[in-house]
Amino acid sequence: MNQERFKKSRRAVFLGLAVNLVLAALKFSAGWTGHSYALLADAVDSIADLFSSLVVWRGLVVAAAPADPEHPYGHGKAEPIAAAIVAGMLIVAAFSLMAQAGQAAFTPHTRPEKYTLLVLAASLVAKELLFRFVARQAAALDNLAVRAEAWHHRSDAFVSLAAAIGIALSLWGGPAFVAADKIAAIAAAAIIAWNGWNLMRPPLDELMDASPDRDFVARIKSTASLTHGVIRVEKCVVRKAGFQFFVDMHVEVDPFINVLAAHAIAHHVKDRVREEFPNVHDVLVHIEPARNQDSPSI
Q: Is residue 297 part of a domain?
C-alpha cells in the first residue's frame, strides 16, 4: 500500500516536472522575443514550479521511508512540510511578480506580439489538464503535498488566462490599454498569492496535529464502542501524519474483570479499528473502569 502510493504520487509529480520544463522554456523564449511582460512573468512562475516539484518529490521520498529509532512514528510529516514549502514559494513568487510588474507598468511599453497568445493558450490547456489529473491522484492517495502540486498547476492556468487577457487588451484595446499586459501580471500574481494562502493552511494544521473532521473521529469511536466488552469510549483523540492516522482512546470496561481480560479487550479494539480504517496506523487504548450506580468507586 505504502509503496504503491509512493509510486503513484511520484508519477504525478514527475509528469508535472516534465510539463513545467517544456512550458518554462517555451514561455520564456516567446515572452522575450514577443515583448510580453505577462508571458515572462508566467515563465518565471513555471520555473518556480520546477523547484516546487522537486521539493514535493523529495518530501514524498522522505515520507515513504519506514520508521526508525529516531523517528518511531515514521516520516509522514515530510508530506505536509513539502506542501507548506510549496505554498510558501507560491506566496513569495506572487509578491515578487507584483513588485516587478508594478514597476514595469510605469516604464515605456512595447506591444506584445500576437503569437504570444498562442503560447498562453497552449499553456492554459496543458496546465488545466495536468491539474485535473494530479488532483484526482491527490484525492485518491490522500496526499497533501500532491494536492498542493495540483493547485499549483491550477494557479498557473489562472496566470496564463490573466496574461492572455492582458495581451489581448494590449493588442486590440487601443492606447488606453497599452499597459494591460503588466496589469494582467499583477492580477495573476494576486491569484497566486490567494491560492498559496489557501494551500498553506491544511499542512500547517497537520503539522500542529489538528484533529481531522469530527465525522471521521465519530466513526472511529462508534467502531470501538461496538467491540465486545467495551462499555463506553470515554475519549478519542486522532492525529494525522502523511496519509496515516494515529489514535489514542480511553475505553471503559467492567471494573471487576481481571487484567488479562481487559488487555484482550484493548487488543480487540485496536484490531477492529485498524481493520475498519486501513489508514489508521496505530491505536493506543487506555483501559478505564466503568463508573455507574452499581459499581463501587475505585
A: no
Q: What is the pTM of this model?
A: 0.64
Q: Is residue 35 a part of any domain in this protein? A: yes
Q: What is the pLDDT of residue 15?
A: 81
The number of beta carbons lying within 10 Å of the beta carbon of residue 69 is 5
**Range 93-114 average pLDDT:** 70
Q: Is 90 exceeded by the pLDDT of residue 285?
A: yes
Provide the pLDDT for residue 295: 47
Cβ atoms of 48 and 185 closer than 8 Å = no
- Other C-beta atoms lying within 10 Å of the C-beta of residue 68: 9
Whether residue 263 is found in the same domain as residue 282:
yes
| 15-45: burial string, b at 16+ Cβ within 10 Å, e else | bbbebbeebbebbbebbeebbbbbbbbbbbb
Residues 181-232 have pLDDT tens digits of 677 777 777 877 887 788 788 888 888 877 788 899 999 999 999 999 999 9
Helix locations, 64-177, DSSP H: 78-104, 115-141, 144-172
CATH code for the domain of 59: 1.20.1510.10
Closest among 149, 150, 148, 170 to 39, alpha carbons compared = 170
Of 207, 237, 252, at which residue does a domain stop?
207
CA distance to 28, 194, 232, 235, per residue, from 288 (Å): 65, 47, 9, 10
Q: In the chain, how many domains are there?
A: 2
Domain co-membership, 178 together with 45: yes
The residue range of the domain holding 28 is 2-207
pLDDT digits (tens, 9 = 90+) for 272-284: 999 999 889 899 9
